[in-house]
Q: What sequence folds into this?
């Protein structure tokens, strides 16, 4: 089997189609999610799941807030802070459905996310594995050489890794990841960054790098 | 809402900043302009390549190989076949070479039997340049025996023909395709000779002329690429291709056959009635200024001295032929050819050299400056495409067969093509050209040309300038030049690889004797 980059939390194939909302262009929102590094299909899928749990008279503002949560869930790292800040603006059932969590796990999820950007209830079962990034370019990935020299950067959730002669910055959280090619080797401060006990693991025989949290919780 | 064509490689969206993901709000998702920054052009070209091979053209061939160290090889069958597994990312030539031609503004000849996707690849390049699929298809010039110059370039306006007092007053209704960034000529070996000549002016000079009117063919970006297709490049077709036009083809790429294991994908497309050129993601289209910037970036990739020296050595093999003339400088294949002689016979008549060691004996001609320029540009292009900071020997080696096919012609009477296990090289020109370059590199190493380059040192001394060089120093250098010539004379053997060095020594001798005369006159 060919292993491809992706998040362990993305278990369901994204097949859902959201309901149209007057005044909101959900097609455009999906394309913007894609442009910001997420998956449009997953955005539409999780938004549809969230909409199904909304009351029928939910306002447009609630759907916009739900879209932000769905965008984060679909892999847009830049929406993380906004989504966490507006979780309370959306009915808990809808927010939990969009995130793919049970409603009873939602409070614990929000609490754990304050200190651990990689936490979700299913992580313990995967013994700390969060996601795989990169992958061989010939199979739709990003890299033309296996990754080596992985190390954490100063910012929370960021790492540096080298493929061949090129350095990359890897940003990730529980739902998404992003790669940026760097002009030069980045400066790193030992002992900082990466997140709580998180590591970027590389393997001699693989084009994928894994984000792994040493403390399964 | 999903589009099965719209899948790009998960490549980065920005380069070099090193910043984390920019913060967004939910409201940003509904804005018209996505808040993204531009993808680096080399990354975009790689995304385009992988989109084409993964989504558009079914081409599971990886014949442009790159490896660090020796690749894993499996001998297969009992006729010397070998399958190699390269250790680095390798590429499909029938997609990579057209894409590089698009990037550098080159001329690409796609050869192969009917139905192998040659025109589809060319049309995709037109769409990547920003034209609509319909416009690109409308602009494809179909080669056929009745194609006239007017069919190709346009017609003078009948009204002007009636009223004009001079040719200058005749307006010409130019064909729209002439100024497209990507120009496609299908089956160019079916075009009549006279029309081929008009095509040559466009390809070679970048303009077209009719009724004393002139039109430049370059688009706004200044980058125009040409794609020609032909069923073969060995003289077949309705009309022979004029040599000058054939020489203008920067690269020649054989189209790959269909791999039967990918029939499912083919059936899916037949059932959906889809054409790949109608599904090119908008993110992969190159705006005119991006095309200009891409070509400039490619040209800026440096060629290190070590690679240059090996390239010099490779080029040096082919011009010289012992017995081609009497005066030393005229002992070239060009002398024989322009006098109507047979180069193969001249090579065979040379009993003094080892034909197997003399790489020049394997070819009927030398390399033109144009071919060399093309090789350098394409080596830079593939290095840039692979994300390298400078051109490596592997980049040059990868481009040699595609650039030199049809330009460096094999000598069919050479023992290599005549006997034994290498007879297949007489039809597999790509492998022969690759091997020629590899053998040149082996000779380069065996002769220690990389360790010591006395002629190069003498040339570098002169390049440093003659200001302040004393008569004594100039005489010393003259003696060194004569010493090198004396050593070559004493060896009793002469190969093509020495020809350029010997003529360069004569050049040095002339420069220093002229300088000495000037010094004496001034005294």
A:
């Amino acid at each position: 089997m060919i292993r491809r980059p992706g998040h362990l939390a993305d278990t369901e194939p994204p097949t859902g189609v959201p309901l149209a909302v007057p005044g909101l262009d959900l097609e455009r929102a999906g394309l913007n999610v894609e442009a910001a590094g997420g998956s449009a299909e997953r955005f539409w899928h999780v938004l549809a799941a969230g909409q199904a749990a909304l009351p029928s008279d939910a306002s447009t503002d609630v759907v916009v807030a739900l879209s932000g949560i769905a965008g984060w869930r679909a892999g847009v790292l830049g929406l993380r802070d906004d989504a966490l800040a507006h979780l309370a603006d959306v009915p808990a059932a809808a927010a939990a459905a969009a995130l793919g969590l049970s409603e009873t796990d939602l409070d614990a999820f929000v609490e754990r996310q304050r200190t651990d950007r990689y936490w979700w209830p299913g992580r313990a079962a995967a013994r700390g594995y969060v996601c795989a990034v990169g992958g061989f370019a010939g199979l739709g990935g990003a890299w033309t050489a296996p990754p080596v020299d992985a190390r954490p950067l100063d910012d929370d959730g960021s790492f540096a890794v080298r493929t061949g002669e090129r350095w990359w910055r890897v940003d990730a959280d529980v739902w998404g990841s992003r790669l940026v090619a760097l002009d030069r080797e980045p400066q790193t401060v030992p002992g900082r960054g990466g997140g709580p006990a998180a590591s970027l693991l590389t393997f001699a025989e693989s084009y994928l790098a894994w984000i792994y949290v040493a403390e399964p919780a | 809402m999903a589009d099965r064509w719209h899948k790009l490689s998960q490549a980065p969206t920005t380069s070099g900043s090193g910043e984390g993901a920019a913060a967004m709000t939910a409201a940003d998702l509904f804005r018209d302009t996505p808040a993204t920054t531009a993808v680096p052009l080399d990354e975009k070209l790689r995304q385009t390549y992988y989109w084409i091979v993964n989504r558009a053209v079914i081409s599971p061939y990886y014949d442009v190989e790159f490896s660090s160290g020796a690749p894993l090889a499996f001998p297969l069958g009992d006729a010397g076949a070998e399958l190699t597994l390269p250790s680095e990312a390798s590429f499909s030539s029938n997609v990579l070479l057209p894409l590089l031609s698009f990037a550098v503004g080159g001329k690409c000849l796609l050869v192969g039997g009917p139905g192998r996707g040659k025109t589809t690849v060319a049309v995709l390049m037109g769409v990547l340049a920003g034209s609509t699929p319909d416009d690109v298809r409308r602009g494809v010039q179909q080669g056929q025996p009745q194609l006239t110059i007017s069919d190709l370039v346009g017609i003078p306006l009948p009204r002007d023909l009636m009223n004009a007092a001079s040719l200058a007053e005749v307006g010409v209704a130019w064909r729209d395709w002439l100024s497209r960034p990507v120009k496609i000529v299908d089956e160019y070996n079916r075009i009549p000779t006279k029309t081929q000549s008009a095509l040559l002016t466009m390809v070679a000079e970048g303009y077209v002329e009719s009724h004393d009117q002139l039109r430049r063919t370059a688009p706004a970006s200044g980058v125009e690429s040409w794609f020609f297709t032909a069923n073969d490049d060995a003289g077949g077709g309705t009309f022979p291709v004029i040599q000058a036009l054939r020489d203008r083809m920067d690269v020649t790429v054989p189209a790959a056959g269909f791999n039967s294991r990918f029939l499912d994908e083919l059936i899916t497309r037949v059932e959906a009635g889809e054409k790949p050129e109608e599904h090119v993601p908008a993110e992969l289209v190159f705006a005119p200024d991006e095309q200009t910037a891409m070509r400039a970036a490619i040209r800026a990739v440096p060629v290190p001295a070590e690679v240059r020296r090996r390239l010099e050595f490779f080029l040096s093999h082919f011009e010289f032929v012992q017995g081609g003339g009497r005066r030393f400088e005229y002992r070239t294949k060009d002398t024989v050819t322009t006098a109507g002689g047979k180069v193969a016979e001249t090579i065979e008549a040379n009993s003094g050299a080892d034909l197997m060691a003399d790489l020049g004996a394997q070819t009927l001609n030398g390399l033109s400056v144009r071919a060399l320029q093309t090789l350098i540009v394409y080596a830079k292009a593939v290095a840039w495409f692979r994300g390298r900071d400078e051109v490596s020997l592997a980049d040059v080696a990868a481009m040699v067969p595609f650039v030199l096919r049809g330009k460096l012609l094999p000598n069919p009477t050479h023992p290599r093509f005549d006997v034994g296990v290498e007879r297949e090289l007489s039809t597999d020109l790509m492998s022969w050209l690759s091997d020629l370059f590899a053998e040149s590199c082996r000779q380069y190493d065996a002769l220690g040309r990389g360790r010591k380059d006395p002629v190069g040192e003498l040339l570098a001394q002169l390049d440093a300038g003659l200001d302040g060089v004393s008569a004594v120093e100039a005489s010393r250098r003259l003696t060194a030049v004569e010493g090198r010539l004396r050593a070559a004379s004493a060896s009793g053997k002469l190969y093509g690889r020495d020809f350029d060095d010997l003529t360069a020594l004569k050049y040095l001798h002339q420069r220093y004797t002229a300088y000495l005369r000037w010094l004496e006159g001034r005294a």
Chain B touches chain A at residues 1-2, 7, 9-32, 34-36, 40, 43, 46, 50, 53-54, 62, 88-89, 386-389 (CB under 8 Å). Chain B has three domains: 93-299, 305-446, 454-522.
